[in-house]
Specification:
- The radius of gyration is 24 Å and the shape is globular.
- It is an alpha+beta fold.
- Helix 1 packs across helix 2, helix 5 runs parallel beside helix 6 and helix 6 crosses helix 7.
- The strands form 3 sheets. It has a 5-stranded mixed beta sheet.
- It is built from 7 helices and 10 strands.
């Protein structure tokens, strides 16, 4: 399997979950509660936090399977944590590192364990030799950069891993430590996000008014403005904030910000569909 096939496999998982959700009345990513925002998706063994598309895939899997613990690991990591050593090409049980318990004959994963594809990207470094790039190690890159040499770096796709939620394994289940203190209300969090965006550089004009007949909430790239009905026009305040944030994501594509939206985007169905997915995510 090539690197391109691997990365497409991870992205295909995202598309599959989204399309399945769109076919249903209740989308898979519409959760009836707001998970603890202080808890992020992490690797159980390395404690590394996941980011980018990996967070999207892991969040979908957590909601669909009702996982309570957002910790993940590969099959080989589970073997290592459980205390299984590879000898002669096979894994054999050894004493568990922390508790001293042995796992002779016990399955590492539970039956029908569900895995999720994640992408791994890594930086590469180079220096210019005879007007060509020569790839180098990070230590040499840092040294040359300090000396003002012509060097560069970029992030490239390395490989695709399949990870399991910790609840799909027979490992001791960790306890999630919740932060002390009274959490902010959901409405206060949403209000803070909108208020901060309004004060940010190159923020769009935000207009709340009754809409004309046939008019709908929208973002105008030409005027760089968001138009939504006043909050009392909505069935509940959460639908108001959802609409406002949706149009707000569209506005980040303006040429003065992320430069994602062009004048022609509304005339190309595929590009417009991609932009709508960005706003929903």
């Amino acid at each position: 399997m090539t690197h391109t096939q691997r990365i497409n496999h991870a992205e295909e998982y995202t598309r599959k979950v989204m399309l399945e959700g769109l076919k249903k009345k209740n989308l898979l990513w519409e959760c009836g509660y707001v998970p603890d925002l202080s808890i992020s998706h992490t690797n159980h063994k390395s404690k590394t936090e996941y980011n980018g598309l990996n967070v999207v895939n892991l969040t979908f899997a957590q909601m669909e399977n009702n996982y309570k613990i957002p910790q993940w690991l590969t099959y080989r990591q589970a073997l290592d944590v459980m205390g299984l050593e590879k000898k002669g090409g096979k894994y054999s049980p050894v004493t568990y590192k922390d508790s001293g318990k042995r796992y002779d004959g016990e399955r590492v994963l539970k039956e029908n364990a569900q895995s999720v594809p994640i992408e791994y990207w890594k930086p590469i470094y180079w220096k210019m030799v005879d007007e060509k790039r020569k790839y180098i190690k990070v230590a040499e890159y840092k040294e040359l950069k300090e000396n003002g040499e012509d060097v560069g770096t970029k992030i490239v796709f390395d490989r695709c891993y399949w990870v399991y939620n910790i609840e799909e394994t027979n490992l001791p289940q960790p306890k999630i430590k919740k932060k002390k203190g009274r959490p902010k209300s959901k409405v206060k969090i949403l209000e803070d996000i909108i208020a901060q965006y309004k004060q940010s550089k190159n923020a769009p004009t935000m207009i709340q008014r009754p809409l004309a007949k046939g008019e709908s909430p929208h973002y105008s790239p030409l005027k760089h403005e968001i138009v939504v009905p006043t909050i009392n026009c909505y069935k509940n305040k959460y639908r108001y904030y959802k609409t406002f944030l949706h149009e707000g994501i569209h506005s980040t594509g303006h040429k003065s910000l992320l430069n994602r939206i062009t004048d022609e985007i509304f005339y190309h169905k595929e590009e417009y569909a991609k932009e709508e997915l960005v706003a929903e995510m």
